[in-house]
Amino acid sequence: MRDYLNISLIFFILILISYLSLTPISKPDTGLPVAVIGHLGMYFLLAGALLTYFHDKKHSHIDAVVISGLTGLMIELIQSQLAYRTFDIVDIFVNFVGAGLIMLELKVPIVHKIVELEDKFLEKLR
Fold this sequence. Notes:
Layout (H helix, E strand, L loop, with lengths): L1 H21 L11 H20 L6 H20 L9 H12 L9 H16 L1
Helix pairs in contact: 1-2, 2-3, 2-4, 3-4
């Protein structure tokens, strides 16, 4: 059951990233680097969701970062084929940095706490 919850979260984040990356949306002019903050946040969330899925595997942090970063690369390649979007190497870098921020979890093990909460939730469902 945990795997279904984690995979559902991963797909939700992937759909959200795809929608935001592939639809013609105008960026608000707030003076803040909204695109950079968005990329960092979304790929950090994706890496975190992947990490909860891979939590018991060896090299789970690296797998989460690589898969998240490659997802960003794939979306940038798709954007290069769209008339209303452009390929941006900086976005790829920021995507990998956002995903790489999940490595901070090694110092503050949040995923272990999330897995414990999932276990408690699933026990209550039984």
